[in-house]
Structures are given as structure tokens and as C-alpha cells.
């Protein structure tokens, strides 16, 4: 994991980076050496009436605090990533169920709030880009970076370049896993996310056992200790994940699938049985390597900072919005 | 369908085109106006001992016949497409279950046989390229062209360019449809192809009813006439296809899915219920248009001819192999 004094980013423009999640927002100032200064988590404001505006309005105060702590450091650009459906090219948050916005012009709002160019992106694609440029996906041209936490989503990199399908691609958590399964928050039925996300594993175990658990880690521990209910929930998740990965191998045929997010912290307890199950499902297919993500929790923030630096490197002064 | 006198290809270099299938080989001479001269189907030689060499050895005689019929027409390049796993860049037939070859240097063999530059490709990707350049996929940047016949395979075009995953991508027929399903010829279990290909529909109906049928068309007709066994087989195929298309929408998010091959000839009987079922499976996803392929049976041959013309346009004389 990237700490405040670890410079995985290397030298480049000074930028502010914000990775806005459904619960927390991570923010940091990235200096010219690539150090993440003042990295912190703060609660994301959720405002049903003006969701995008209230999120954007919360950012300048975070920036002021960071800049006050590091008075000599002047950012040239801002990186901002959000979850949901994101159209990076248009700078629009198309939809995010946690927030409720639809077609929100978030990049323009943020450029107005900061008076700086803003690189606006998708949290999972930002994390995938960071893993591809700095982490576990680095050596692969065709690779999928999967984040398995509360939900499941993937960043697709093909021929060395991110592919976003107009913002809609990579929604592996919302592929059909079980036609007779549970309703998903997305509105469809039996999505992979309802069986195999870290959140679903905890939820399904709690529902089946009546026991309260904090997360998937405890379900895995209970399964290892001989709890049959926990073992069934864990095995169902592994089977559903292996089915989904086998389908990715057949359709996209990536050289590797990098898995990050909370569930990946199970390490060999996840990767060893998942590799076995994937292997059993494939025949002539290109067999993807299953690799643990390397950048940890801050991959999204690092990718956001990389995008802001790319923008600072490419932006001519005339292109900047100076309100 | 492109007849001998229809020029959908337009003006360009004169080429020979061969679309080698598991049963038949289609061949034609393409003149400078883009007409397919002498288009014919001949039996593909299957030789277990030397499968690639015997296929390639059968082509010069076809070429001689075509050139004898059109003495003034001199080809500058040859296009050759085959099924299975194809590495276009290396010019290698990686694997084809119908033929049994493995890592066969087919492009080099064909260049030796013809003394002309050879564009070597994959039959389904060639058909997809033709539909994208000349047919139903023309207006889309992110599009999948699916051929549903004896088997099911797709050509993936992203950002206007074909994506092949090293030759392994687009094997939608070999994605898991039913974990408790039948063994597939590929070695895996419950592949989409075992339920939803035109071949599987006929086979499953014959197995369930004891009646002998020539193809999926007769199963559809029987279902329409009230045959409950036929209706079940047809509905199972539609459901499995809709599941697979919904997963493509979530992962690849194409603007459109173009469907060709034998099954697509059912027209509205296929497309209307398939659109309904796909629609019911999606929530926030990008909803792909389902479009019938336009170039018919000759799409693979047309795409093969296009690739040969591209090669003729790009090949400098020094690059040609003149044995």
C-alpha cells in the first residue's frame, strides 16, 4: 500500500487527487516527487436533492486543508474519480446508484470550483490504470483488473489501452450468475455481485446462519474452522466467480486477470481454489493468469493522480478554465 | 447475398479469396471492379495425417480453374481464412478441431504454393470485418458480429478496430451456459454452443422427440405448429442466447450485436423474442441493438477478399515471396 512517504508515482506535475466513494472520499496532494501528501479519508456527503453539486462542493475545503499543510506546493491540475457509470470523454457522471445523480456535468462543476483543469474518471478504471502502469497488470497488454469489495467491477485494458465502452464496459458484477438468484440493487436478478462480492458473502452468511458478521473475512475463517454454512456460502462465491472468469477468458481472452479489493486480501485462500476452479472450466481457451493486485486500497487514488498528471502534461494554458 | 455479378466490394486490386470451412471451401476470383468471379463451393479435403498441408495443396487447382475461366484477370494477392484458433499476425493456424492441426504455418505454406502474398485470417473475424466495412455493423464503433450456425463464434470490433485477443477472443459459443449441461466437443461442459447453435437445436429436438430433423428451421416450424418438445428446445436456446448477450452487454457493452449464420435466417422469429428476453435481463446496462447480418453466407469470403486487397495495397514488391 502506498503510504504518505512512498513515491510510487515518480516525478511529475503537482496535482490534487480525489477518489470519491459511496462512503468515504480519499484525498491527497501529490508533489513533484510523486509523494502522496496528507492522504486522508473523509465522509462523502450524500445529498439526495443535489448529489453531484454537494460532492463537488465538499472538495475545495479538502484542498485548502492540504494546501495549508504544504504551503510551497502548488497544484497544476485536479484528478477526480467517482463510482457508477462515467463518461470520461464528456466529463459526465451518467449514473451512480449510491448518489442518485444522472447525467451530472461533474467535470465542469469541479473546474468551476477549482479554477484548474480537472481529469474526471471512473474509480475502478482509475485503479485499473494504476495497476497497469505501476502495479500487477504492468507486463500485460490484454488484461482485466477486477475490484471485488462491496461490489464487483472491472477495468478492461486491451492492446495496452483502456477500453470503456462509452462508460458501460467492465460491469462484471452485473453479469448474470444465477437466473433463480436474488434481486440485485441494479434492478436485474441473480447478478454475480449478489453471490460473490465481499459484501454478498457476509450478507448471505448472516442470512443463512442468523449470525452477525462484519465481513467476508470472518466467513472465510468460519469455513476454515468447519462451519458448513460458511463453507457453502464461500464455495458458492468461488464457483460463481470461476464461472464469470471462464466466460471472460472465452470472450475477452485476457492474458491476465488482476484481482484487487477487499476479497483479494484473502490471498492464497482465494487465489488457489479460484485458479483450480477456473482451470477446470476451460478447454482450448487462453488461460488467464490470476494475479493479486499490488497497489492495495489506494490504487484508485493513484490512478486518479496519474490522470491529473497526464492532463497537466498535455494542457496548454489556453485550455484551462479560469473563472 | 453477394452473387457473381454483384460488386459490394467496389474497385480495388485483383485477388483470389478462399474461405475454408469444415465441410466446404468457398473460392472466388475478385476482379478490379470488386465482382466475385466464379464463386463456388467445393469439398474441403480432410487429411488427419497432414491436415494443413492437404488443405493448402487443394487451393492451386481451384485457382487454376478460376484463372482459366477469366484469362485476362491476374491476381496480386491471395486471401485465405480458416476456422478454429487463428493467430493472424504470426500466420499460424493454432488449432482447429475439424481438421486437427496445431500450430500449422498455413500462411507460409500458402505463400509457397501461390508465389503471391497471402492474407491469412479467421473465418468469423473475416465475416465480422466484412459486416463492419460493408454490411450491418457499418455504423457502429463498438460492435460484436455473431455467427450462429453449426457453432457460435463472434468477431469483436472495438473503437472501430478488430480485437482478437491473440486469436482467442470472441469464443462466445464456448462460454458456460449451463453447469449441469451436456459435454461440448471442445472438452468443457455446458457451453452455449451445446444449447443455442442451429446444430444443437436440431440435435436436442431429435434426441428429445425421436424425430429426425434436418435443421433448426424445422424445429422452429414444429414449435410454431404447437409441438411442445420443439417449443421447449427453441425456448431453451433463446434463453441461453439472451443470457449470453446480456453478459456481453455488461462486460463489453457494444452498441450493437449483429447476428448472422444459419439461425439468423429465422428473422423476426428469432430477433423479436430475443430482443424481449435481452431487454428483460438488463438494468442500467448499455442496451445493444440486435441487428440481422446483411451480407449473408458470403460474408466470410468477402472479408477474406478485403484482407487480400488490403495486403495488395500495402505490399511492396520486395515484401513478396517469390519461390
UniProtKB/TrEMBL annotation, chains A, B:
Pfam families: ROK (PF00480). Belongs to the ROK (NagC/XylR) family. InterPro entries: ATPase_NBD, ROK. It comes from Agromyces salentinus. This is ROK family protein. Gene3D superfamilies: 3.30.420.40.
Amino acid at each position: 500500500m502506498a503510504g504518505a512517504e512512498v513515491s510510487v508515482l515518480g516525478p511529475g506535475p503537482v496535482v490534487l487527487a480525489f477518489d470519491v466513494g459511496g462512503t468515504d472520499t480519499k484525498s491527497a496532494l501529490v508533489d513533484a516527487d510523486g509523494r502522496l501528501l496528507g492522504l486522508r479519508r473523509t465522509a462523502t456527503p450524500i445529498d439526495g436533492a443535489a448529489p453531484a453539486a454537494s460532492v463537488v462542493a465538499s472538495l475545495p475545503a479538502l484542498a485548502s486543508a492540504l494546501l495549508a499543510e504544504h504551503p510551497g506546493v502548488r497544484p497544476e491540475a485536479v484528478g477526480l474519480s467517482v463510482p457508477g457509470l462515467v463518461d470520461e470523454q464528456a466529463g459526465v457522471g451518467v449514473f451512480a446508484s449510491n448518489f442518485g445523480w444522472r447525467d451530472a456535468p461533474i467535470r465542469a462543476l469541479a473546474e468551476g470550483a477549482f479554477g484548474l483543469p480537472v481529469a474526471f474518471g471512473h474509480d475502478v478504471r482509475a485503479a485499473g490504470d494504476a495497476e497497469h502502469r505501476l502495479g500487477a497488470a504492468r507486463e500485460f497488454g490484454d488484461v482485466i483488473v477486477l475490484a471485488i469489495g462491496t461490489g464487483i467491477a472491472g477495468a478492461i485494458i486491451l492492446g495496452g489501452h483502456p477500453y470503456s465502452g462509452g462508460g458501460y464496459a467492465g460491469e462484471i458484477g452485473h453479469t448474470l450468475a444465477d437466473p433463480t438468484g436474488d434481486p440485485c440493487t441494479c434492478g436485474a436478478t441473480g447478478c454475480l455481485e449478489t453471490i460473490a462480492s465481499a459484501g454478498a458473502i457476509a450478507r448471505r452468511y448472516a442470512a443463512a446462519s442468523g449470525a452477525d458478521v462484519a465481513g467476508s473475512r470472518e466467513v472465510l475463517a468460519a469455513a476454515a474452522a468447519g462451519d458448513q454454512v460458511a463453507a457453502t456460502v464461500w464455495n458458492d462465491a468461488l464457483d460463481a466467480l470461476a464461472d464469470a472468469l471462464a466466460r471472460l477468458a472465452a470472450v475477452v481472452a485476457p492474458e491476465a486477470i488482476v484481482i484487487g479489493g477487499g476479497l483479494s486480501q484473502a490471498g492464497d485462500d482465494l487465489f488457489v481454489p479460484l485458479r483450480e476452479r477456473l482451470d477446470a472450466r476451460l478447454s482450448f481457451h487462453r488461460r488467464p493468469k490470476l494475479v493479486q493486485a499490488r497497489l492495495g486500497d489506494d490504487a484508485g487514488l493513484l490512478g486518479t493522480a496519474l490522470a491529473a498528471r497526464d492532463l497537466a502534461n498535455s494542457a496548454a494554458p489556453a485550455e484551462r478554465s479560469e473563472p
